[in-house]
Amino acid sequence: MTFRKISCSMLVALLLVFVGLSPALSDNYPSKPITLIIPLGAGGSHDLNARVFTSVIPSYLGQAVVVKLMPGAGGQTGTAAAIKAKPDGYTLIFTHNYIDQLQPLLEKLPYDTIKDLKSVCRINYGASSLVVRADKPWKTLDEILAYGKKNPGKLIFTTSGNWGATMTPGARVLLQAGVEATYIPYKGGGPAMQALLAGDGDFMMSFPSQAGPLVEAGKIRALASAGDKRVFTDVPTLKELGYETGTMDRIVMAPKGVPEDRMKILRDAFAKLNGDKTYKKLMQRIGENTEYMDGPDYDKLRPANQEAYRLLVKKISGQ
Amino acid sequence: MWDNFLQGILLTARWDTFGMMGLGLMLGMFVGALPGFTTIMAMAVLLPISFFMDPMVGIPFLIGVYKGGIYGGSIPAILVSMPGTGASVATTFDGPALTKKGKSRKAMEMALFSSVCGDLSSDILTILFIGPIAIMAMKIGPPELAAIILLSLIIISATTSGLFIKGLVMCFIGLFFSMIGQDPLGGMSRFTFGFFEIKSGIPLLPMLIGLFAIPEILQAVEKKITTFVAEEFNLKSGERLTLKEFRRSIRTILRSTAIGTALGIIPGVGQVVSAFVGYAAAKNASKHPETYGKGELDGIAAAEAANNSVNGPTLVPLLTLGIPGDKVTAILLGAFIAQGLRPGPQLFAEQGPLVFALLVAMVFANIMFVVLGYLTIPLFAKVVTIRKSALLPLTAIFAFAGSYVYRSDPFDLLVLVFFGIFGYTAKKLNFDVTPMVMGYILGPVLEYSFGQTLNLARGDTLHYIFAARPITAIILAITPFITAGLWWRGVRLRRKHMKELPSEG
Fold first, then answer.
1. CB contact under 8 A, B187 and A162
2. Do domains A31-125+248-305+312-317 and A129-225 have the same CATH topology?
3. Which ipTM score applies to this complex?
4. Which single residue of A30, A72, A182, B18 has CA 20 to 30 Å from B454?
């Protein structure tokens, strides 16, 4: 019975393959490549950041980290997939605070990110600057806000998408200043900037990699920036001006239930990565900082952030 | 500027630049030819490699992947009616029909030459007119985009095979499918019935493979012949593209190049649309439109020249403002900044020679591609000569595998099967699925730009369009006339057809 023999041996081989892949039996984690889900599309800043750190981290983790782009439903498709994944430390997600902490407030989702995901670390953050086209009259943040207050709904705020990384910090400033503006979402920061330059918008929030060359060329003017440190040396931070906003935190997370020893291996690897020279150099080249934060510290910030967003969502959409 | 240009040429004259560019072209072509793997995925995966290379090696490498990938997508489209990328859908109209006549090699050669012609001329136009293109791109805002998409949808619905009204019906079905999932502006769920899986909408690639490849497999099964390529056609002789055939299509290629270059200026519309519009225009201009969709070489030339000539102008916002117009240029932007080049208004002033070097590299990439592509075509052409009993199951496996690897979501297999049945039924009832695909792809863009327009107008839309948006007003004003013209043309053609073939009436 050659056929039976063959099928038997194939079955055994298959079983062996599965056993070999099963992490439960091997304690030398990680023993196979780790999948990193990005719930966003190709070519975005998350993709680019991930390409940088996944090309350096194998030397600290001893395994490759494979990027898997899962865009869809504003980040929910990828997030759901990461939460559903087996909590064995072989599936991680590289996401940001608006998907993690704000999105669950907008509608009913089949998961609760704060409970279902635990932070490995914050890789860095993106601090956006409030910019206007160079020929607009406003020279300071106060001037544009004063104009907006006098003319409710007249200021056009071009954003990279509803409740995204550039709308939320801007909306927080507007709310604190009591200014009503018209929000126009675009598909990403690029088209939003193009609209601003074409004169279809009055102001927007823009990240340094995009705003930098345009500010230098004198096409746009930065009035204030998010974050603790100044982005442009002669432009104040929003904090200095008395406004509370946030940055876009790029965070690596794991589904809840990953064994503590494995979380520690991951966190240690990322901590070591942050001291790596090649990594720092590459991040600097793509115009990103390396303001790393350890996972447990970041987990402490998440509930508080969510409360701030809850207030914002309530005020703006009246929900 | 002339100095910069000359220095740029000197910068490209390096062996490693050409070597890596060739490697990129080949990699791109093979990845593009695999269903389910998109050019964008290939570029994203290969991006880190370019970080560690010299700018004049790393970026031409990625450009190679990009150009190779787009052509690669047309290979399975021609052979087994499986569009590897959205841009190659229009190529499935005539490609498989030619393959069945034993002319697959001819079709692939036509695709290669028209791709390269379209790409090359659009690159040269871009180098010459980078300034004016940048200014024109700025004039296209949401209202203009909405008007252009509306007009494109009408043109495409009107030029499908069959009745105008049938085309419109399919277009509306496509628009409806595009609404399933989260609405693009507000993020509300529509038609999801609480199922989380369809919240992100219907995935494009499984839908395309289902609509185009599955009906083709089913139809081949219906006909009980043993080989996919009819035996009476000799594969050895007469399969190559002749100079005469190419010359016959030059007008089409030029027209498609003009269309592609113009559509490339408009941010966010891209290759898919220009392939369809180029095809529609060629069919409209032809003296024998009835041969389109039944194995017309000119149809391949129209689609391929159009989708490739988008490449030049899409780079303009990236190079002049540092703003990526689509995903491909977003990845290129990543490669630029990782190399320490920050595209933006000052890039030309600071790095003039390098920018020209890259543009010149794109031109050379095309020339190189003719040679590499030509040499590999016989390899691919052999694929369809295997027995049908092996080829059809293989195609089916690739259809399922390709749909799955796109997002690794089992739900996509259901989508594939659903649209496979849908496509087959539509074919039997003589409904052309093209307007549906267009409606599906353009629906969200139309909805988005229309919503933005309403916001921009602050409630007074008509006044806003006619007072502040003259380009939009003109496009909207000519739309009814074009629609009427196309409809009348359709009526006349059918009458003529009926007179000639009274029995088929």
1. yes
2. yes
3. 0.81
4. A72
Percent of chain A at pLDDT exceeding 70? 91
Q: Which of A208-217, A231-240, B81-90 has the highest mean pLDDT?
A: A231-240
- Residue ranges covered by each domain of chain A: 31-125+248-305+312-317, 129-225
Report pLDDT digits (tens) over B430-462. Answer: 898 888 998 998 898 899 999 999 989 887 888
Mutate to test the interface with A, among B452, B453, B454, B465 (most CBs of A within 10 A): B452
pLDDT (tens digit, 9 = 90+) per residue, A22-41? 444 446 889 999 999 999 88
Q: What is the reported pTM?
A: 0.83
CB contact under 8 A, B407 and A70: yes
Q: How many CB pairs under 8 A join A and B?
A: 148
Residue of B nearest to A73 (CA): B200
Please report the pLDDT score of residue B114 as a whole number. 93
- Which of B333, B405, B447 best tests the A interface by mutation, with the highest count of A CBs <10 A? B333
Tell me which range, A118-132, B72-86, B121-135, is most confidently predicted by mean pLDDT. A118-132
Q: Does the distance separating the beta carbons of B347 and A76 come in below 8 Å?
A: no
Give chain B positions within 8 Å (CB) of A81.
409
Q: Which residue of A has its CA nearest to B342?
A: A213
CA dihedral B131, B135, B140, B141 (to 10 degrees): 130
Smallest Cβ–Cβ distance between A73 and the set B47, B200, B448 belongs to B200
From 3.40.718.10, 3.20.10.10, 3.40.190.10, 3.90.1150.10, which CATH number describes the A129-225 domain? 3.40.190.10
Flag whether residue B51 sits within 8 Å of chain A, measured between CB atoms.
yes
Of A84-98, A213-227, B81-95, B302-316, the one with minimum mean pLDDT is: B81-95
CB contact (8 A) between residue B187 and residue A69: no
Query: Taking CA atoms, what residue in B is nearest to A182?
Result: B455
